[in-house]
Each structure stands twice: as structure tokens, then as C-alpha cells.
Amino acid sequence: MALDELRALLARHARSDQRTAIDGVLVSKVERPGPPSPSMSGTVLALIAQGAKRIALGDRVYEYRAGQYLVASVDLPITGHFTEASPERPALGFGLTLHPATVAELLLQAASGDLPPAGGGAPPGMAVNEASDELLDAVVRLLRLLDRPRDMTVLAPLIKREILWRVVTGEQDAMVRQLGLADSSLTHIARAVRWIRDHYPQSFRVEDVAQLAGMSVSAFYRNFQAVTAMSPIQFQKQIRLQQARLLLATHPNDVTGVARRVGYDSPSQFSREYRRQFGAPPSQDATRLRDATLSTTTALV
């Protein structure tokens, strides 16, 4: 059975940094559930072979387990943790980074009748689906190459394209296809997301970011909410608080300075919103985080 072989391959090749010899392919092995931690999703396909994971994005919660995969088509601020994992039965996951240029190239090569009709509007930036037998088989064949280095250079790109094709023609075809379309609603929102992420300490007017995305204010707001499950201002707040938590892990005695660095003029507002987000005031949470190492690029797998 493909899922059984996938578990064996993932367990054998898992490393602490999740990386593999195949570019863009990640493998994870987690032996115990951890507390929810903030990170950025990246644009990825994440498939679980064993265990279960829960991810929160705004007011949406995504749960996926063995035989299911999650797709993130925009780099989003999330909070996630494995909910089922143990030393005897660790959580095992596979991840593949999604690149817009690769999706675009695949769409250009497809015949017009090979793809389902495109839907209107911006799809959600994240979704969970059951993995088809064809998708599982392709993932297994890709991971087998880790034991056959001689075949990796030639065959890995072909199998990664097959995996992408299975996703592009699957239930979330619209979401992944829009990732590769230069003028799609998702691409316009992704541009705005990148701008907010890169300039998160700065105040901004929604009208200006809508203009940057090439949309009217009403269309921008509607599509931004559909993709990210947040308003633009809520999105900025999530980024600010996540960055503040990362900074506090290394500067636990400088709560006021950290608040200023992430864009808060009012320390009291910062403390109030931080506590609401993470369940503890900044100083207390900083003490708890002092020995922890967090990363804004934690993979979904």
C-alpha cells in the first residue's frame, strides 16, 4: 500500500532540519505534540502520512491527518501544531515548495481541454483535501529517489511536475492554478500580502495597498478576506505580533523596544494585543521563550 511505503520512506529520511537532497522537498518526523507556535506558511503542498496537525489562519482552522494534504498558495501568518504524535508512532509528513513560475509553465503546456474551467474571484489561500492514489504513488516514487542518487537529477524534476499536475487537476485546481497566472485575483492579493509583510511596522491606508494590488478598494477587501481569512489590518497585526514574539525570544528584557520595532506606538496596546494572541503578557511569554528557538519559515509538514 502506498501509504505504508510512504511512512517507511519518511521515517528513514527525516532529518532535524527537514531538508532532503531533492530541491524543494521537505520531510518531517515529530515525536510528540507541541504547543501551537506561529510561523509563515510559505507556498507549499504538505502531505501527512502519519499523525495529525492543526493550523489556524485568522478565524479558520484546518486539520489534516494521514492520507490528507494541505495546500497553501500564499505565504500566510499561521499558528500550528501536531495534535497526534508519539515516540512509538511519530507524525510523518512530506512537503513540496510551490513556485508560481513552475505552475505557469505547467499550465502553458496543458491542452485547453485538460483543465477544469476556472472559477471567478480569489479562492482561499489554504485548503485541505484527500490525497488520491495517483498523488500518493507519485510522492512515493519521488522519495524513492533519495535512495537512488544517480537517478535523482533526471527523474526528480519530472516526478515533481507530476505531483503538481495531480494537484492542479484535483479538487483545489483553481487555487493552485491561480498561483501561476500573472493576472489572477490570487496573484494580486499575493502582491499585497508581500508588501504588508515586508513593511509591517509601517501604518498604511487600505486604499493605497488596493491600488498596489491593481484592484478597487471593495474588490481588494473582499478578495483579501477570501484568501487570508483576515482584513488587511488584521493581517498586519498578525505579522507584527509574530515578529514581536520572535524578537522577544532573543531580547526578553526589552519589551518596550520590541513593541516599537514592530510598529506599536503604545506599549499598553502592544501588551493587550500580545496577551490576547498568545495567552500571556509579553514579559511572561519572553521568559518562557528564552530557551526556545522559533523560525518564521517553519514548514507545514
TrEMBL record:
SUPFAM superfamilies: Homeodomain-like. Pfam families: AraC_N (PF06719), HTH_18 (PF12833). The keyword Magnesium does not apply. Residues 190-288 form the HTH araC/xylS-type domain. PROSITE patterns: HTH_ARAC_FAMILY_1, HTH_ARAC_FAMILY_2. It comes from the Bacteria. PANTHER family: ARAC-FAMILY TRANSCRIPTIONAL REGULATOR, TRANSCRIPTIONAL REGULATORY PROTEIN. This is AraC family transcriptional regulator N-terminal domain-containing protein.
